[in-house]
């Protein structure tokens, strides 16, 4: 059965196709015969009348085995078989071996036998009725069919046995006296198999058969179910209908017996629940009224309350079960029990709901107390952290860190405000609940307990308010101090920046202020620009001095020593002295250059026909002295008070300026020689 298959395909005469795959291993003819008998017992007589087409797949077997199988078909199913297709291998059997001609034996065998290759099998059977093994398109899963067949036979066997058992139980309950019925029910109360399981198996099997019948294939051609599946569907449906009928009667029998036993137990259990809830249960709640003065105390009370709730839950579970049982009996409609059941149900519900409401109120009160103490503890920790931050002296490295610290301080203060607001809300909610506590006191005076709880809550809120006010005052002082420190750091940074600016001005003076001008006019312009440059430097120096004076005032206010002013002031004075010395040297050179160019230009512009203007030769001597003095200063460095030296520009820059002065001195010297020649020629003439 694991290898033979009835694929559901049909030949051109609408007969079913039976496939016998042979393999290299030894094939048992007895097993093959039994399997064929089983497969042929499945289809209906109408299907059998159309005949079978048998495909013997001998591609992996020997000729002798194939021949034996074909001859066996003569003994097993000669009447049902109309055609046998022997699929031969690619390398055909030896002609001598296959000399036995099946077509000559057709009359003796009772059916036609043909030898055909797998790829030519479609000449006799449509491709849509062949599986992929023979080049067809028919979808068939042999293991799936086998599993479904086993499920069907198992269901048939179990359902038939179960129907007999249920019928025996149900028929026994309908006959004889009440004692006989109960005895019969006791003896046959439980079937050997679970009816629900059998019904579920049957429904799943029927659903699978119906789904395979109506689903189409992927190619769009409707899939035709095998005849055994079509035959199985009405069998399954008939068994399911019988099972449902007997099982419904069986359930009614069980329900009647259960109702009779329940009625006697309900009244006893109801009284047990009522007596405990009104006795020990109520006494437990009367002794629990405190809310605790801390988180730990509230948690301990909650734990104690949970133990009480746990004990009540056991009785509440009994109440739920009893209520369901009473409701079921009320729905049954027995009039003689309705009044008593409703009275028991009402009494039980009143006691349980009252006790449950008391438990819920107590649980909500303890939860509110726990939340109040939790918020109070968080707020206390926030206040401690804020106070610790305020008690530590501020020693930041720069203004940015001060700003960050100030921001953190403001955030903590805001968090404290929100925490105090939340504490007030939780406290007021808890006070409102406590004010309603007297209504649940069962006649007990709880004024003293409530007063202690109210005093504790109000005391906690007042204490937190005072602590928060003290922290706010300290934050105001710390904020002022930190803002002054920010200003102090800003002054120190700006003063240091002023020193840098002054150093840059000095560097620019030495490296870029080099030219002495080509004439007196240009030199005067350079001298005027230099004075403006000095004014900028003077303003920078004054700005730095003012900032440093401000740092001294802030340090005195903060009672701290400035870390920067002690170093910045000497640097500022040193750079300023260097700038002053360099500026004076620059002014002296420019003034000397102005004198030199003015005198030289005056001499060079005089007409040679007016010798009386140069009667005194000391002008030439003076301009030569000025020029030499200017050339000498160009080669001398600027000497600072600390002994260090700096040159104006590069040597090439100084050489260029000196060369221009020398050229002008040559012109003056040439002019002097021209004036001397007329004086020498006049006496001779």
Automatic annotation (TrEMBL):
Single GO molecular function: phosphatidylinositol-5-phosphate binding
Keyword annotations of the record: Repeat
Transmembrane segments: none
Domain of life, source organism: Eukaryota
Domain CRAL-TRIO: 1-142
InterPro entries associated with the record: CRAL-TRIO_dom, Spectrin_SESTD1
One Pfam family per UniProt: Spectrin_SESTD1
Family (UniProt): Belongs to the SOLO family.
Listed name of the protein: SESD1 protein
Source organism of this protein record: Grantiella picta
